[in-house]
Design a protein that fits this description.
344 residues, alpha/beta, inorganic pyrophosphatase (n-terminal core), Diaminopimelate Epimerase, Chain A, domain 1, 2 domains, 6-stranded parallel β-sheet, 6-stranded mixed β-sheet, 18% strand
């Protein structure tokens, strides 16, 4: 099914809905949360009972969004609230695997309509209704198009979360996924009262002093391969504890190694209990999604992630070896010497 037909099919499901639960992946980000909040607000204009339920709490910098205070958080081992009972549609947004819905997965799979709307190339194709298109810069844009097809009023309550989703996933319109469709949506949202400076302040100018001190210590772990093509940083649980940062409050630091002049691929290692979370970024034609997929993760060619069992040291050795092998394979396949060119 082509993308336009898939969107229309999902719109038809939502048009018939009476009760919808909207959700996203664990450790939700601005694209997942913003898409859910904006789409929920739009559906309510048709009299739909729309509840946003997430498998983990909203990050603090997203709590300015309309509807954030009413989000249901369904953590592991916690009974689901009665407000989620009887839903006829479960809408998963910006989630590449059903397992990442956490404690909400059983509810999703029991709904008559389990809808999967996503833009990750690694999406596993779950659900009985799907619109998956990796050409979209953000799922927030897909949610915006769904509401336009449904004819929903594009109020500030709808547009602010969707615009926030778009700004986050395009890096403030700086990433290569930014396209004319992104700017058309941004213009429509600003025309309906969204103030870009408010979104920028919430996403990027609301950090604590402890957070910045943590970042300063983290920068001291910055390392590169001898040729500078690979750059990485490591974050330990001890560092986080010393600066009073819970896991959900850690700033996005992978942009530091990826910003070095010679970097082709960067990664960030974050120690969690019994495992290491890995964030990967690419600035060259060598994608990182395949590396993540080999270890149970996923994402996009330019941005992907995974979780590895074991220690930071073991994870560092494995990821560095795989990244360097991918860079070398790209050059050998083209019978070229040297590094792949930067193109971002």
């Amino acid at each position: 099914m082509d993308s336009e037909r898939a969107r229309s099919s999902v719109a038809s499901v939502l048009r018939r809905a009476r009760t919808v639960v909207l959700s996203s992946h664990e450790k939700v980000d601005a694209d997942g949360a913003g898409s859910a909040l904006g789409l929920a607000a739009g559906l309510r204009t048709f009299g739909v009972s729309a509840v946003v339920a997430l498998p983990s709490p909203l990050p603090e910098n997203l709590r300015f969004l309309p509807g954030a205070a009413e989000c249901v958080v369904a953590g592991p081992g916690t009974p689901l609230p009665a407000t989620l009972d009887g839903a006829d549609v479960f809408l998963s947004l910006d989630c590449g695997a059903a397992s990442r819905l956490g404690a909400l997965r059983p509810l999703a799979e029991s709904c008559p309509a389990f809808v999967n709307v996503d833009h990750h190339a690694s999406n596993e194709g779950f659900g009985n209704h799907r619109w998956v298109d990796e050409s979209y810069a953000a799922v927030g844009v897909m949610a915006f198009e769904l509401l336009c097809e449904l004819g929903a009023p594009l109020s500030l309550e709808v547009c602010l979360p969707l615009y926030t989703a778009l700004v986050y996933d395009t890096g403030g319109f700086a990433f290569s996924n930014t396209d004319p469709r992104s700017h058309r949506m941004a213009a429509a949202c600003i025309g309906r009262g969204v103030r870009p400076e408010v979104v920028t302040a919430a996403l990027h100018r609301s950090r604590s002093l402890d957070s910045w001190k943590f970042s300063a210590e983290a920068i001291a772990t910055l390392r590169t391969s001898p040729d500078g093509a690979v750059a990485w940083m490591t974050l330990t649980r001890e560092m986080m504890g010393r600066h009073g940062l819970a896991e959900g409050r850690i700033p996005e630091l992978v942009e530091i190694p990826v910003s070095l002049a010679s970097t082709r691929i960067a990664f960030l290692l974050t120690e969690v209990e019994g495992a290491v979370r890995v964030s990967l970024r690419s600035r060259c034609p060598v994608g990182v999604q395949e590396i993540a997929a080999r270890h149970g993760g996923g994402g996009h060619a330019r941005a992907a992630g995974m979780t590895l069992p074991g220690t930071l040291e073991a994870a560092e050795a494995l990821v560095r070896a795989e990244v360097e092998a991918a860079l070398g394979a790209w050059s050998r396949a083209r019978r070229e010497t040297g590094l792949p060119p930067q193109d971002a």
